[in-house]
Design a protein that fits this description.
single chain; 364 residues; alpha/beta; Rossmann fold; 2 domains; seven-stranded parallel β-sheet; two-stranded parallel sheet; 14 helices; 40% helix; globular; NAD(P)-bd_dom_sf; PRISE-like_Rossmann-fold; NAD-dependent epimerase/dehydratase
Length: 364
C-alpha cells in the first residue's frame, strides 16, 4: 500500500525529534524532512547524513537540556528515546525524568502544540523484571486495558507526559509499538539488523540459521512494527485533531507465524534455516565468541561497523522470540480515527536487508 498522506505543515511548524539517532528517530527525521518540516534532532552526537539540524544534549541532565533548548521553539515534539538501567526502579527514575526535564526545558518558550511519546507493548506485558508474568490482558491488546499492578517505567513516562503537556497547554499522543524494525546502527533493540548479522555469521561459519526462540513463538501468531509506519503514525496523530490526547497501539496490520517467516528470511539472507527443536536456543549462547568471525566478515567485505555489539543485540531478540505468551495488538482505535496505513512485515524485513547491504552494514 502507498504511504498515507499527511497534511503539510503550516509555515510556522517545526519538529524536535528526541532520540534522533535511533530506529524510530531516524525514520521520523526522514519522514518529517520529506514532508517539508523544519526538523531539529536531539542526540548526544550528530547523525551522519541526517537532514535534521543537530541539537546536542544529554537527556539525563536537566541542566544540559535547559542549555540546549533555551533558544528552541518547536511546535511539535516527538520523544523516541529511553535509557536502559539495571533495575526497573532505576528505569522509572531515569526515564520519567528524561521526559519531565525535556518538557520543563521547553516550557518557557510556550511554543509546543503537541507532544508524542513512543512506548511499547511492555505496557501490557510488564517490564523486563516481570515480563509476561501474572494475569495479562487478553490478546489482541486494547489501549484501554488496565495498567498491570507492577512498576513499569512506561506508566511513569506517560504520567510525566500528561503533566508536562498540561503545563505546556499542548495535546499529546502515546504510540505503543511492538518490536520495531528499521534502519539504525548502535541501537539496543534492533531485531532486523540482529537477524541479518546472525545470518552473516552463520553463512561464514557454515552453520544453519537457527531459530532462537520458544515453541510458542515458533507456532503462534505475532505482529511487528515497521519504523516507517510508526513515523507516519506519529506525524498523523500530531496533525489530526481526532487523534489528540489518546494512546494508540501501532503495528503493521498483518499477523504471521515465525515457522513461515523464518525460512523466507533465511532464503533472503542466503543461509540454510533450522526451526524450533525441543527447546529455545538463545542467540546469546549461539553467538557467544563470534566477535572474531564478525571482524573477519567486516575485513573481507569492507563493512562499515566492526563492533559486533553495535550491530547485534542478542539479548533483545532473545527476549522477543523467547516469550511463552502470544503477543498481538489491536489497531481499531487508529483505524476508526482515520489511520489506514498497512505494511506487510515480510516486505519490511526484505527492504531493510537491502538497505543495510547498500549501506555496507551487512555483506551482499
Amino acid at each position: 500500500m502507498t504511504e498515507q498522506p499527511t497534511p503539510p505543515p503550516s509555515p510556522d511548524s517545526s519538529a524536535l525529534v528526541v532520540g534522533a539517532s535511533g530506529i524510530t528517530g531516524t525514520a521520523l527525521v526522514d519522514r518529517l524532512s520529506a514532508g517539508g518540516w523544519d526538523v531539529a534532532g536531539l542526540s548526544r552526537r550528530p547523525v551522519p547524513g541526517s537532514p535534521a539540524r543537530h541539537v546536542a544534549a544529554d537527556l539525563r541532565s536537566a541542566g544540559s537540556l535547559a542549555d540546549a533548548l533555551r533558544a528552541e521553539r518547536p511546535t511539535h515534539v516527538f520523544f523516541c528515546a529511553w535509557s536502559r538501567q539495571q533495575t526497573e526502579a532505576e528505569n522509572i527514575v531515569v526515564n520519567r525524568a528524561m521526559v519531565a526535564d525535556l518538557l520543563a526545558a521547553l516550557a518557557p518558550g510556550r511554543s509546543v502544540a503537541h507532544v508524542a511519546l513512543v512506548t511499547g507493548l511492555k505496557h501490557y506485558l510488564g517490564p523486563f523484571e516481570a515480563y509476561g508474568q501474572g494475569d495479562l490482558p487478553d490478546t489482541p491488546f486494547l489501549e484501554d486495558a488496565e495498567r498491570l499492578p507492577v512498576p513499569n517505567f512506561y506508566y511513569d513516562q506517560e504520567d510525566a507526559l500528561w503533566a508536562g503537556a498540561a503545563e505546556l497547554g499542548a495535546t499529546w499522543s502515546v504510540h505503543r509499538s511492538h518490536t520495531v524494525i528499521g534502519h539504525a546502527v548502535g541501537n539496543a533493540m534492533n531485531m532486523g539488523l540482529t537477524l541479518a548479522v546472525q545470518a552473516a555469521i552463520c553463512r561464514a561459519t557454515g552453520r544453519p540459521f537457527v531459530f532462537p526462540g520458544s515453541e510458542t513463538q515458533w507456532n503462534g501468531l505475532v505482529d511487528m512494527t515497521d519504523a516507517g509506519l510508526l513515523a507516519e503514525h506519529m506525524v498523523w496523530a500530531a496533525t489530526t485533531p481526532a487523534a489528540a490526547d489518546q494512546a494508540f497501539n501501532v503495528v503493521n496490520g498483518d499477523v504471521f507465524r515465525w515457522r513461515r517467516m523464518w525460512p523466507r528470511l533465511a532464503a533472503a539472507l542466503g543461509v540454510e534455516h533450522e526451526g524450533f527443536s525441543g527447546a529455545p536456543r538463545p542467540l546469546e549462547q549461539q553467538m557467544a565468541g563470534a566477535e572474531p568471525v564478525w571482524a573477519r566478515i567486516v575485513a573481507e567485505h569492507g563493512l562499515a561497523e566492526p563492533d559486533l555489539s553495535r550491530v547485534a543485540s542478542w539479548w533483545h531478540t532473545d527476549s522477543d522470540l523467547g516469550r511463552d505468551v502470544e503477543v498481538l495488538a489491536d489497531m481499531s482505535r487508529s483505524r476508526l480515527a482515520g489511520f489506514t496505513r498497512y505494511v506487510r512485515t515480510e516486505d519490511a524485513f526484505l527492504r531493510l536487508f537491502d538497505r543495510y547491504r547498500a549501506d555496507g552494514v551487512i555483506p551482499g
